[in-house]
Amino acid sequence: MIILKKVCIYLRKSRGDENLEQDLSTEALRKHEDTLLDLADKRNYIVTSIKREIVSGDSLISRPEMLSLLKEVDNKNYYGVLCMDIDRLGRGNMREQGLILDTFKKSHTKIITPRKIYDLNNEFDEEYSEFEAFMARKELKIITRRLQRGRIRSIEEGNYISPNPPFGYLIKEEHNERFLIPKDSESLIVKKIFHWYTTESIGSSKIAHRLNDSGYTTHTNKPWNNYSILNILKNPIYTGKITWKKTRTYKDSLGNKHIVSQNKSNWMVVDGKHEALITKETYEKAQSILSSRRNSPVPGKRQLKNPLAGVIFCEICNKKMILRPYKNREPQLICTSKCGNKSSKFSLIETSLICNLRKYFSNYPITIHMEKDLLDDLNSSISFYNNSINYNERQLRELYLQKTQVYNYFERKIYDKQLYEERVSFLKNKELHINNLIYKNKIHLQESLGLKEDLKRNLSINRDLMDHYFLSNNIEEQNRFIKSLLYKVTYYKPSKKNLTLKIYPKLRC
To answer: Which stretches make up the Recombinase domain (predicted)?
Structure first.
């Protein structure tokens, strides 16, 4: 008499394999299933369940089919479980592998593969299965190490191995190389972001508003915000570098993945094969500005009252000096930490600083080189607004084609009247929005063209730049002006009659 034995087929293909052979993963599972069904047929097993999953074998918590199988095995539902190899059941840590093998042993459930049947209540089979589990873990570590070495070697050669390109670039693959090439429509925006931030002292939020007002979106077609701008400003890839190990991934005891940022000292930074969009000097200047703006001199929307805010630093503790107002006496410039630096009258510091700057810049001419830089900046703005207008006009042409298609669908009765009216209304609103953007960009373009003509007419600029400070009644404008001339000023006053200001100018005479 033939005894029919109930079995379950378990099929697993690792997610790593899926990434490498995405189109073949389902086909591989199908072939494995056919092999195990043939095996069950030859041995007169009754297959009552087939469980399939495409997932890594190193964590039980992320394998719902395996958890379900272990519960059924614990309930003694099967004579055995068919799989292609014992490591298909799992090759994670020792605790999880021990749990799997212990469940099969206690329930007297066999592990059946095409080349061997494992009875874990047999001492030899138990030792052999433990040895194979150990080798499976070892193999996983070796494969992981090889993959990591391959990635690092590819990065060291300047290849870009991340799946998605950063904003401003496209991925190009040729001759076993994978590198970035500039995307014209986006690379110009990257250059403008750095220019606005480092040259015009425009903050990340205002840059985001400016791009949104011009109709530009991120490469995921979302509006810009200060975080997306800051991500670009902080990314060294725009200087021609490739970075790796910026983050580290680990799993907790439940198998959940966590991503944490690594210290910059642990980053891997190498020269890439791609073209840089900005210079190293521009990038470093942006990082310096970012560092100085981490603690805003004026939190929230409070009005600026100190024209030297964020400029003067304590020589002893390197903290920013602040303006302390008083009711019955002059405002003082003070250091809030108890480092021993004495305070001074603000008017004394302001006058001293401006006089020293006046002296420093007294013989500083506006050179032909500076004229060229100003013209280059204006030409860059003109190019930006021209490109914006061209981009918006392309959007209008695409809208026209979409409207034509909507009319066509309505005539062919693919769209009913309600859907037709909704689509037409949506496209008309979008058209109105784009026309408004074109109008704004044309205004900005005319302003830039006018400034360019004014610059050409004025071949010289007043040499006494300091007049700009005193002629302005706007404290924010005074603050921007001082910051455009100086990196910082350090303040040292160990006693009442001993004051030293060290000036760090951006322009060198």
So the answer is: 166-296
